[in-house]
Amino acid sequence: MGTSLRALRALALLAGFHLLTLAVLGALLGADVAAWLWAPTAVAVELTVLSALLGVPIVRATLLLGRPGHAGDVGLPVSESEQPGLWRTVRSLAERVGTRAPDAILLTGDANAGVSEDTRLLGLLPGPRRLYIGVPLLTGLTEPQFHAVLAHELAHYCNTDTRLAGLTHRGRDSVLRTSDAFQEQERKRLDRKRARREKAAAKAVAKGREAKEVNTGRAGFTYRIAAKPFLAYARFYLRATHSAARAQELAADRTAARVAGRDATASALREIAVLDAVHDFYMSRYATMGIPAGLLPPRGEVFGGLRSLLTAPERQENLAALRSEPPAGVPSRYDTHPAPADRIRLVEALPDDGRANAPAGPALALLRDAEQVLAELEAAVLTPETLALERADWPELTHRTAHTLTVEEARPLREALAAAGLPVSPASPSADLAAFLDAVDAGGLWRIADHLPKSPEAARARGRAAREFLRPALYSGLCDLTELALAETAAARWELSWAEPARLLLPGGREAAEAVAAAVRPAVGDVPDTAPLRELLRSSTA
């Protein structure tokens, strides 16, 4: 099937989405008329109310069909006067691709790029375009690789084949937005109902009454019912246009190779597969690790710190392995993108264009005052609550975060100490540890352990079996309490590493983990021996 025929089919299917709306609303109206003509008044009233409850969400959701999706416009707009180098690059690429340049550029915190267009008349009439550029791409790609990514995204809107060539791409976006609208409205109603129930439960508790279980009941029910035919049609539309959409993705890859070079395009696909994984890992393990302690990285480092992870010498071998073996999994039946490994293979099979993938500078150099941009991006995309957190440099952030997490992990053991009648000092882990060791020497190890949280199976166990259930939690809690004591009395600190989890280091740089494990193990043995742990504490503070 030719491009024009595929596009016309997509247009007919998209029009069918509107016809489905009219058909469903017509069926509801017909049922209401029939009820008023032939059914008792009470039945007619009930059916009319039900039709209204079903009809309103249908109209509200389908009104979004074909509208631009601005829900994701959380980013930092950059004007041509602010970033002339970036705009100059984008305009040049658009001209080489054969399409018009975007009207706006927004920087985002995602490892992704995309173009959206505010089309009219089911995508037939063009409108303003927005280009979304994820700063992680600028951070992790070279300029030629970045050119390939932008050329691919702009190629979805080129006019090389026909004005209708982008209909499938636009139609899929519209259908997915409409389907999401139904589900979003359902979520909103569930959240409102849950919030009301939780507020009522809190009031009941405040008055000394038993709170009812929070149950959202039938909240969002009408949206769930109304959405069913449209979700089914959306799945049909996505399946019907799947081959055309995949063909457009591969055509966009070929356009990127023509514009930016075969090798740059192939290497960009490899690098994006790496960035997808590394960015998620960085955001969860580093950028947001301080939130439990009420901390954020230095200004500009929430997104900018990814550079340190990508350039860490200890990470290079792993990153090279990821580049050499891109994901080859089977995509979803609705995913328009073939597996990265297949896309790379097809691009590398193109004729050699003589533009070798020579070393090049980072794409971040396209930004004027990149450090300021990274800081402004944080202000644009982070929530006010997050922005209000205290800032700390990476070493301090790492130490305070690890300390906070270790305090929480040691909490069950300290609560067990209190439950066993021993003195507990929340502000002094070393005092709690001393009380624990004295109790162990007095034969109270398993009396303390008996107050640790237990699984149902552990609670039923007796004798040695019960001890074996409790020993891992006892060992882990004692390791945590010992580390806290070393941080308090021996100035031990948790050290940032871009290659492995934070490590607790004793003065002089000696790693504490192995020494702590060796000293704690005898203290929780069948015949407890606290001497190694006491010696570790003594020698560390000497």
UniProtKB/TrEMBL annotation:
Required co-factors: Zn(2+)
Peptidase M48 domain ranges (all copies): 123-348
Major place of residence: membrane
Keywords from the UniProt entry: Cell membrane, Hydrolase, Membrane, Metal-binding, Metalloprotease, Protease, Transmembrane, Transmembrane helix, Zinc
Domain of life assignment: Bacteria
Transmembrane segments: 40-59
Pfam family, one: Peptidase_M48
The species this protein was found in: Streptomyces ehimensis
GO molecular function: metallopeptidase activity
This protein's name: M48 family metalloprotease
Record's bilayer topology term: Multi-pass membrane protein
